[in-house]
Write a structure and sequence with these properties.
binds glutamic acid, 3-stranded parallel sheet, alpha/beta
C-alpha cells in the first residue's frame, strides 16, 4: 500500500430492515481487524436505493452495536471528518465523480426506457447491456450530440452507464480467497447514476466513498464477491488503483441443517433468532425475535459469531473481546461457508452466564418471579441462583424432541426453582421419585428427622449437617430422598442441607409435617 498506512475499515449497511446476524459478524470482523491494527472503523449508511428504505432500520443497527459492545470511531451518529456518512447526503459529491467519468469517455448516458429494455430482453436470450449490444441502444454513443442535449433538456429520464472494455482479465486479490480472475466481457455496463432520483447506484457510491474515506480494507460478506471485479475496474477508471483497498470476502453463514444460506425461516423453524435485537416491522407489524430479548448476553453473541468462519486454533473457545482482538487473523478465515450452530450459541451463553455474579442474574430472575406472583429479595434470589446455576434442564425443542441442556438463560431457572418459593401442596403419586422413596416406614423416619431438626440452633447448611450426619450414622437411616420429596415434592433441587437452610427452620418443619400427613402410599 502506498500513501495510506493507517488501517481504516468500514461497515456499510443499507437501512433496508433489521440487521441480519451475518451482518453483525461482518461488522465484528471489521471491528476486530481495526482494533488489532490500531486503526479506525467507520459506520456508513448506504441508502441510495430509496425504494428499499425502511424507517427505524438505522437506529436499530446503531442500538444493536451499542448492545454488543462494537464501537465505531466515526460515521453516522459518531461524527468524524470524512462526512457526511449517509450516502443520501452526498449527492453532489457523487455527481462530480460521475461527470468525471463521462467527460473522460469512461461512462455514457443511456435513455432506454424500462419498456425498451424489457423488449430487448424478450428478443435476445441472456441480453446484457455491454460492448456487444450498446451500439443497438439509445445512448450517447449512438445518438447525435444535439439529440442527447435535446433529450436531456426536455427532461427525459436517463441513466449513466459504466463503459466496460470487453475481453480483459480483471484480477481481484482477496485476502481470504486469494486471486480471483474474471473476464470483463461477462460484466455488463452497470448503471452508475439515475437521473430519476439524482442518486448514484450502490457501486459508484461505494467506490467513491471508500476512496474519499481512505478505506484500506473492504471486509464484507461473500455475496459481494461478484461485484469486486467491477469495483476494481471503477478504481482503475478513476485512477485510484494504487490506493485501492484490499478485499476480504467472508464465508457465508449456512443453515443449521441442510444446504444453503441461513435464513429467517430457519430461525423460526428451529426456534432461534437471526437478528441481534427484537424487530418490529413498521409495515406488517410482524415481530421478529432478537438475541437480546431471548436472554443472550452480548459477550456470548460476540464470541459465538467470532468463531463462525474463523478459528484461532488451540482448544480455548471462550474468548473475551480483548482476546479476540489479539488473536484475530483475516487470512485464517475459511473460504467454505460456516454452519450456524445455534445449540453452540446456547452453550456460549451458558458459559458467560456462569461467569456472571449471581446478583447480576437477579433483576431478570426477579421479573419472572413477579410475573408468577412471588415476592422475594435480591439476596434470596441470588442464593437460589448459586444453588441452581450448574443444573441441567430438560426441554422440548421446536421439532418436538426431548432434549437436555445446561442452564443457558435466566429463564431456564424458573421451572427448576418453583419449590424454593412455593411449598408443594400435593404429592404426585405417579411420580417415580415419590413412589420409590416414600415407603411404609418413611413417615416415621421423617418424624424422627423433624424432631431432630427442631433442636438445631444453628440452622445453616453446616449447622444442620453437623446434627443430621451423626444421626444417620447412628441409626443407619438414609433420609435424603424422602426429605427431598417432603421439601420439593419430587426429585429436583440442590443439596438438602442447603435447601433446608434456605427455607429456614419453620418452613422446613412445616413442609415435613405436611408431607407426613399427606403422602399416602399403598
Ligand atoms: N451496502 C452494502 C450492504 O448492505 C455494503 C456492501 C459493502 O460492504 O461493500 O451490505
Amino acid at each position: 500500500m502506498t500513501a495510506k498506512s493507517k488501517v481504516r475499515v468500514r461497515f456499510a449497511p443499507s437501512p433496508t430492515g433489521p440487521l441480519h446476524i451475518g451482518g453483525v459478524r461482518t461488522a465484528l470482523y471489521n471491528y476486530l481487524f481495526a482494533r488489532q491494527a490500531g486503526g479506525e472503523l467507520i459506520f456508513r449508511i448506504e441508502d441510495t436505493d430509496s425504494t428499499r428504505f425502511v424507517p427505524g432500520a438505522e437506529e436499530y443497527i446503531i442500538e444493536s452495536f451499542k448492545w454488543l459492545g462494537i464501537e465505531f470511531d466515526e460515521g453516522v451518529s459518531f461524527g468524524g471528518n470524512h462526512g457526511p456518512y449517509r450516502q443520501s447526503e452526498r449527492r453532489e459529491i457523487y455527481k462530480q465523480y460521475v461527470d468525471r467519468l463521462l467527460s473522460q469517455g469512461k461512462a455514457y448516458i443511456a435513455f432506454d426506457t424500462p419498456e425498451e429494455l424489457e423488449a430487448k430482453r424478450k428478443e435476445t436470450d441472456n441480453f446484457q447491456y455491454d460492448a456487444s449490444t450498446r451500439t443497438q441502444m439509445r445512448n450517447s454513443l449512438t445518438l447525435p450530440a444535439d439529440e442527447v442535449e435535446r433529450l436531456m433538456a426536455g427532461g427525459h429520464q436517463y441513466v449513466i452507464r459504466f463503459k466496460i472494455e470487453p475481453g480483459r482479465d480483471v484480477e481481484v486479490d482477496d485476502i481470504i480467497r486469494g486471486r480471483v480472475s474474471i473476464n470483463s466481457s461477462v460484466i455488463d455496463d452497470k448503471v452508475l447514476y439515475k437521473s430519476a432520483d439524482g442518486l448514484p447506484t450502490y457501486h459508484l457510491a461505494n467506490i467513491v466513498d471508500d476512496h474519499l474515506m481512505e478505506v484500506t480494507h473492504v471486509i464484507r460478506g461473500e455475496e459481494w464477491l461478484p461485484s469486486a471485479p467491477l469495483h476494481v475496474l471503477l478504481y482503475e477508471a478513476f485512477g485510484w488503483i494504487d490506493t485501492m483497498p484490499r478485499f476480504a470476502h467472508l464465508p457465508l453463514l449456512l443453515k443449521p441443517v441442510g444446504n444453503g444460506k441461513l435464513s429467517k425461516r430457519d430461525g423460526d423453524k428451529l426456534g432461534f433468532p437471526v437478528f441481534p435485537l427484537e424487530w418490529h416491522d413498521p409495515t406488517t407489524g410482524e415481530v421478529s425475535q432478537g438475541y437480546r430479548e431471548q436472554g443472550y448476553l452480548p459477550q456470548a453473541v460476540v464470541n459465538f459469531l467470532a468463531l463462525l468462519g474463523w478459528n484461532p486454533g488451540g482448544e480455548q473457545e471462550v474468548l473475551s473481546m480483548d482476546e479476540l482482538i489479539h488473536l484475530f487473523d483475516l487470512s485464517k478465515c475459511s473460504k467454505a461457508g460456516a454452519r450456524f450452530d445455534y445449540i453452540k450459541a446456547q452453550w456460549f451463553n451458558h458459559q458467560y452466564l456462569l461467569q456472571l455474579p449471581a446478583k447480576e442474574w437477579t433483576p431478570e430472575f426477579d421479573k419472572i418471579l413477579k410475573a408468577e406472583g412471588i415476592d422475594s429479595t435480591p439476596e434470596r434470589e441470588a442464593q437460589v441462583v448459586e444453588m441452581m446455576k450448574q443444573k441441567v434442564i430438560e426441554y422440548t425443542d421446536k421439532e418436538g424432541n426431548r432434549r437436555k441442556r445446561n442452564i443457558s438463560f435466566v429463564t431456564d431457572l424458573w421451572p427448576l426453582c418453583r419449590f424454593f418459593f412455593v411449598a408443594p401442596d400435593t404429592y404426585d403419586p405417579t411420580d417415580k421419585f415419590v413412589r420409590k422413596n416414600w415407603k411404609a416406614e418413611t413417615a416415621d423416619e421423617m418424624q424422627q428427622l423433624s424432631a431432630l431438626l427442631h433442636t438445631v440452633t444453628d440452622f445453616t447448611a453446616e449447622g444442620i449437617k453437623a446434627v443430621v450426619e451423626p444421626w444417620t450414622e447412628q441409626t443407619g437411616i438414609r433420609p435424603w430422598n424422602a426429605w427431598r420429596v417432603a421439601l420439593v415434592g419430587t426429585g429436583q433441587g440442590p443439596d438438602m442441607y442447603e435447601l433446608s437452610a434456605f427455607l429456614g427452620k419453620e418452613e422446613t418443619l412445616q413442609r415435613m409435617t405436611h408431607a407426613i400427613n399427606t403422602i399416602d402410599i399403598n
